[in-house]
Amino acid sequence: MIRARGLGRRFGDKRALTGVDVDLHRGEFLLVTGPNGSGKTTFMRLLAGLLVPTAGELEVETDRARVGFLSHDPLVYRELTPLENLDLYGRLYRISERRERIGMLLERFGLWDARAEPTADLSRGMLQRLALCRTLLHQPELLLLDEPFTALDTAGAELLLDELGRPEPRDRTVVVSSHQPERLADRPTARLALVPA
Amino acid sequence: MSGYFADVTALARKDLLVELRSRDTVPAMLLFVVGALVVFHFALPEDSSRLAAAGMLWIALLFTALLALVRSFVAEREGTVIDGLLLAPCDRSAIWLAKSLSVFAFLAFAEAVALPAFALFYEPVTWELIAGVALANVGIAAVGTLLGAMAAAARARELLLPLLFLPLAIPLIVGGVGATLAEDPARYLGFLALYDLIFAILSWASFEYVVTE
User: What's the pTM?
Assistant: First the structure.
C-alpha cells in the first residue's frame, strides 16, 4: 500500500524529513513516533498527497477518494454547523446514503446534540471529534491520523480506539503519528521512529 | 459532467452560506462603494465632465472588488480548510469556479447598490454601463479568484493581491470606461467579453497548479 525509499522533504534550506524507508501492506497498522520537529506531520502530509517529496521515492497505492486524513486542524468551516460541514464533504466525496452516514457518525462521536450549533462554538475536544467524523465519513481504505488523541477526553479517546478496532472497512491501512504510543500498545503495530533531520 | 457541476453548486452554496453567517465581505463592500462615490462627488469640481464621473465609478468598482478578493479565501486559510478541499476527490477547478461565482454574486450585489447611487450623485445609468459592469465582473471574478488563491498562501497577502491584480485589471478598466462613454460601445463590450473568455479559460486551467505543489 505504501512504499517509501529515502523519502525526504525540504522547506527552503530547512530539512524537515530525511531518508525515510517504509513498506506497509494493505491492512497493516503503522505507528509513527518521534520528538517535536522530527517530521511526523510532514511525513503524514506527504502520504496524504498534500506535499510532494523533494528527495527519494514515495508510492501510495490508492486514490485521493480513498484517503482519510486527520490533520492538526479540523479542516472544517467555523461558520457552518457540524451537519453542514459533513454534508459538504459528503457531497464532494459523493457518498451514497450521505445523511444516514453523517447521522450515524455524529451519533457515534457524541455530536448529535451539537449538530446544528456553529462549529466556532464547539470546544477543542468536540472539534477533534468532528474532525474524526470528517476523516471517517467516506470510509477510507487508507487512514492517516496525525496526533489523533489531541484534545480528546477519555471517552473521546475510547471512541477513537473503538473505531480503529472495527473490522470494517476490510483491509483498512492505518498510519498514526502520536506522542502517546502507549494508547496503541495492544495493537499489532509496525513502528517508525523519526528523528529530527 | 453533472458531478462536476454538483461539486461547484455545493462549494458555491457553502461560500454564500459562510458569507451569510459571517457578514464579513458584502457589508464592507457596500459601505466602501457608497462612501467612495460620496467622497468623489464632493472631490470633483461642479463643472467636471461625465468622463471624470465615469472614471471615478470604475475606480470605485475596482477597489470594491479588491475588498471581495482579499477576503475570498479567508475562510479556507483559517485552519487550513483548503487542505480538506484539496483532499476531496473533486476536480480542483470546481473550487475556482465556485469561488468565482460567489465573488461575482458579491460584486453584483454591491453594484446593485452602487449604480443607483451613481445615478443619484452623477448621471443616469445606461444599458451600456450595466452591460460593461456585468462583463467586467466576470473578468474580475475569474482573474481575481485565481490571484486571491495565490495571495492567500503568502504572508503579505493584503499587499500581494493588489500588486498582482491591478495590472491585470487595466484592460477591464479600459473596456469598462470605453463601454460607458464611447460612441460605439459594442467594440468595448466585445473586448471585455474576449478578455473574460481568455482569462477565464487560463484561470480555470491553472488553478490546480496554484493551490497544489
Answer: 0.92
